[in-house]
Amino acid sequence: MHAPDDALPSTPDDAPAGWSDPDRLRSAAARHLWPHFTPADQSARGDLPVFVRGEGVELWDADGKRWLDGLAALFTVQVGHGRRDLLQKAVDRAGDLAYFPLWGAANAPAVELAERLAHLAPGDLDRVFFGTGGGDSVEAAWKLARSYFAAIGKPRKYKVLSRVGAYHGTSLGALSITGMTGIRHMYEPLVPGAVKVPSTNLYRAPVHADDPVAFGAWAADQVEATILAEGPDTVAAIFLEPVQNAGGSLLPPPGYLQRVREICDRHDVLLVSDETICGFGRTGAMFGCERFDVVPDMITCAKGLTSGYAVLSAVIASERIFEAFRAGGGQFVHGNTWGGHPVAAATALANLDLFDELGLVEHVAATEGAFGDAMRGLGDLELVGDVRGVGHFWTVEVVADRATRRPIVADADGRHVADVIRAAVLDAGLHCRVFGSGSSVIQLCPPLISDQGVFDEIEQVLRAALEKGAAAC
Ligand SMILES: Cc1ncc(COP(=O)(O)O)c(C=O)c1O
């Protein structure tokens, strides 16, 4: 399935002049490009890979090296690379109107996409507010929660809860919700009122590590305890990913999300499912909240909405929230130029058409077991402490010592071993996240068209890399 016949990959022949000259590209990147979350000396050295072409699950860099995309670029390219048919359909659909904003008006692709997303989303999540990225939709959802409570006469409800270690974006509001201390501290003081609750990392659970149900109940009860400590009349929302990415595919323990839902209902707190990664098939359902059987009050989504072929995000909100603004004669005072751009919306529509044509969500559900088996097969290696995941969203946790679960990157020796493993994965041309943000996990999140051949190749590359790492211990 991973190399669709009708995909029309770009070829070196039709690449713009200069794209085929790796030295020129690298030196221009070294001099002028400022890459994201990248050490400045590394980008200035000019040895970052520069990708020029993709097809299905494969990528090629400017040197002609072939890579397997084990991360859907950045948890994004659900339908795979090189789908010129998708782009063509989007251009055909949007071509009559290159741009019109959603300020006091609408454009046709945005309307059509809003209707489609409302049909796809669970419950009464029928109102779609478009934006430009995952963090942008998180930012909007927090403002929306605050505005909603102001609209219904509860303006003191402004605080937001989220989990320790979770990533929700980098603008100052979204960064305040983000629970990764390493990327927050240099920007403090952040937006007041963002409070953290424990994560659901069962492998590193502080209590009930051998009982997922009891651990889930404990973690949910921490949410309630935090709401009570802060004062329920001050808490507006909690942001959770159905499966938390940062820390490595942290699954919700059985009953956890349902208990959080009950707690939210009890204290009039909005439940926001951040589906920037989990949305659009990643977990084997269209939305992660469906996979785990909970209906939130809002979904934030981005990435897979367009499979990365255009820039777009959305907050899909309960009709109840919209109704509060309508009934009060008010408005949500928020917006931007690009949210709901017609070309991006048309791209999302073409992407969702392709989901249907390929039966992509069903394919993920059907192949989840095979992916999991391939990753669990690595469990015989001495450095592998845990393998966990769902759908096409898997993590291998690497430890220096299985008995104590000591993370591989925790000390000077660990860092050396981590470097050996990372280098082996890169040399083999597997694009995935290896020990991101100093964590001890290898994260895998390939395009959703991946099949047994992809799972096996990932397993082989990781096996060889982990064996090298073990030899370096
Ligand atoms: C759960 C989650 N929320 C928000 C974001 C931020 O998305 P963006 O980079 O599009 O702003 C990300 C990015 O990976 C994410 O994983």
From TrEMBL:
Keywords: Aminotransferase, Pyridoxal phosphate, Transferase. Residues 1-22 are annotated as: Disordered. GO terms for molecular function: pyridoxal phosphate binding; transaminase activity. The keyword Transferase applies. The keyword Transferase applies. SUPFAM superfamilies: PLP-dependent transferases. InterPro entries: Aminotrans_3, PyrdxlP-dep_Trfase, PyrdxlP-dep_Trfase_major, PyrdxlP-dep_Trfase_small. Coiled coil: none annotated. NCBIfam families: PRK06541.1 (NF005102). Belongs to the class-III pyridoxal-phosphate-dependent aminotransferase family. PANTHER family: AMINOTRANSFERASE, AMINOTRANSFERASE CLASS-III. This is Aspartate aminotransferase family protein. The lineage of its organism: Bacteria, Bacillati, Actinomycetota, Actinomycetes, Micrococcales.
